[in-house]
Specification:
- The protein has 528 residues and is mainly beta.
- Helix content is 12%, strand content 34%.
- The strands form seven sheets. A nine-stranded mixed β-sheet has the order 1-2-3-8-29-28-30-26-27, with helices on one face. Strands 12, 13, 14, 15, 16, 24 and 25 form a seven-stranded antiparallel β-sheet that branches.
């Protein structure tokens, strides 16, 4: 991806006001105003106004609200994107058809591409129609385009394009000092799968003082609402398998070891008493449906990560652990109940029933079901082994019940202080559709971000977006630049969009982008 190189002044910011807020016990935390020299956020034109307000939440924990930019910019407007096409000729032909129907299209070259797919060739050619005053006018234009036989992709406010302009942006930052990392904990919605909670509900239930939303999640379409779409480890227990090679924030149980951002995979195996072995495909999800792909090689259409895509595997075996609450997914196949010692307690000729307390259930479909019928006889034993490995194929310590929390996201944003955004490798590029990467990665959206500083402090950041006049959001590259300016040396993008949320002392402090309000999320990072 072409990274825009900008020079930013290290001018001192205006007075940073440190306020006091009620604590959980109803007391008021001490506070003091301080003059602090900081680098302005690398967003928009260099001379934009910026203010920062710092609130002490607890010892070693601060919340900073940063407002940058101007609320109005006459250069920005609403428009309709009809398509982004790989070839210029195809874009020009589409523009010709639009012109023939009385529209006035604009064709522009798109150069921003995944950083890990370098090339001097353009990424594609964008075709847009309209320069409109508001979203309602853009929606009317969409209807006119459809009536004329076109299939417009979406409406856009041009302030969401990744280019320098006046904003505005609203950025909220929770900073937890290295000596207070023990306060941070990953929590699953409702403490089980399936199910969902808003971030505010989760923070209240866990008696936390603050929190942000965490990993990408699955939904009803996947059959397992609230399941993390990727790796999840809670206090050393593997809850959800990885999307292979996706980045995750690792919070070690050993307070002497720094948190890190790593690209991780899971290796899971079944071994029967007769010596037969097989891959275990997943945990605590519906067999055969894999959100964001990136699992075993027999997934369709791809075993590579592909964000928000539903891959399928007709030969899955899934393990339901004690973390799964409720009936397992019904259907054809075989279900096997395992005791704590791996002894086969029951073999069911259909996928049905619940997970008995203290036991687990293996559910298979296709050849997976046949393997269970052949090798999981009642009274025999099955051994389940799981491992989490990094890019060097080294096992991640502190798992298997030893205390680590791992919250997956993607893509990575910073590595050793450098902007590194492997969007293609982590599944944020559809090879057949250049518009997906362009929309998801290079356009501005609400984002939730996590970063680690050189001294091991943690930064949890939300950037509001899709709210013209309040906050424009940020692209992947802008997210990385923001975190770097705040002091992070390693960083990862978490679930964003309508899921982006931050709660401080019981109050939702950001403005989620959905008109219906905060979404239910799969998991969260909370500060106790």
């Amino acid at each position: 991806m072409r990274i825009r190189r900008m020079r930013w002044s290290a001018l001192a910011a205006s007075l940073v006001v440190l306020t006091s807020v009620p604590t959980a016990a109803g007391m008021t935390a001490p506070a003091a105003a301080t003059q602090t020299s900081v680098q302005h956020l690398p967003l928009g034109d260099r001379d934009l106004p910026e203010t920062r307000t710092v609130t002490k939440v607890a010892p070693g924990v601060t919340w900073t609200r940063i407002k940058r930019g101007r609320t109005e910019d006459p250069r920005e407007h609403w428009t309709v994107e009809v398509a982004l096409l790989r070839e210029e000729q195809a874009a020009r032909e589409l523009a010709g058809r639009l012109t023939a129907e009385g529209f006035a299209p604009v064709v522009t070259r798109v150069d921003d591409r995944p950083q890990d797919l370098p090339s001097r060739q353009p990424w594609g050619w964008r075709v847009r129609v309209g320069s409109l005053a508001d979203q309602d006018a853009a929606a009317r234009l969409v209807k006119d385009l459809r009536a004329a036989g076109f299939k417009p992709a979406r409406t856009y406010f041009t302030g969401e394009d990744d280019r320098a302009h006046s904003g505005p942006w609203v950025v909220d930052v929770l900073r937890v000092s290295a000596d207070q990392r023990k306060r941070i904990q990953a929590r699953q919605s409702l403490d089980h799968v399936p199910g969902g909670e808003t971030l505010a509900e989760m923070v209240q239930r866990t008696h936390a003082i603050a929190g942000i939303n965490g990993s990408y999640g699955s939904d009803e379409e996947d059959g397992t609402f609230g399941d993390v779409a990727g790796l999840s480890v809670l206090h050393g227990e593997l809850i959800s398998e990885a999307v292979r090679g996706r980045s995750a924030l690792v919070l070690p149980s050993d307070q002497h070891r720094k948190p890190s951002v790593q690209q991780l995979s899971t290796t899971m195996r079944l071994r029967a008493g007769d010596g037969a072995q097989r891959t275990l495909d997943g945990l605590n999800r519906a067999p055969g449906v894999i959100r964001s792909c990136g699992g075993p090689a027999d997934e369709v259409p791809t075993a590579r990560p592909r964000h928000d895509w539903l891959c399928t595997d007709t030969d899955d075996i899934i393990q339901y652990t004690g973390f799964f609450d409720g009936p397992i997914h019904k259907g054809d196949g075989t279900a096997v109940v395992l005791g704590r010692d791996g002894k086969v307690l029951e073999v069911r000729d259909h996928r049905e029933g619940t997970v008995p307390r203290g036991d687990t259930v293996l559910a298979g479909i296709g050849s997976g079901a046949q393997w269970l019928r052949d090798h999981a006889r009642k009274g025999s034993r099955l051994t389940v082994t799981t491992d989490i490995v990094n890019q060097d194929h080294k096992s991640l310590p502190d798992t298997a019940g030893r205390g680590a929390d791992v919250v997956s996201g993607g893509p990575q944003l910073l590595r050793n202080g450098r902007i590194v955004v492997p969007a293609d490798a982590e599944g944020f590029n559809y090879p057949e559709d250049p518009a997906f990467f362009d929309y998801f990665a290079t356009h501005r959206h609400p984002r939730t971000l996590a970063g680690v500083t050189a001294d091991g402090s943690l930064l949890f950041v939300t950037v509001d977006g899709r709210r013209p006049g309040w906050s424009e959001g940020v692209s992947f590259n802008e997210s990385a630049a923001v975190l770097k300016s705040l002091g992070a040396v390693d960083a990862v993008n978490l679930d964003g969009g309508g899921s982006t949320a931050m709660v401080v002392n019981g109050r939702l402090v950001n403005r989620p982008s959905d008109s219906t309000g905060p979404r239910q999320v799969a998991n969260a990072l909370v500060i106790r």
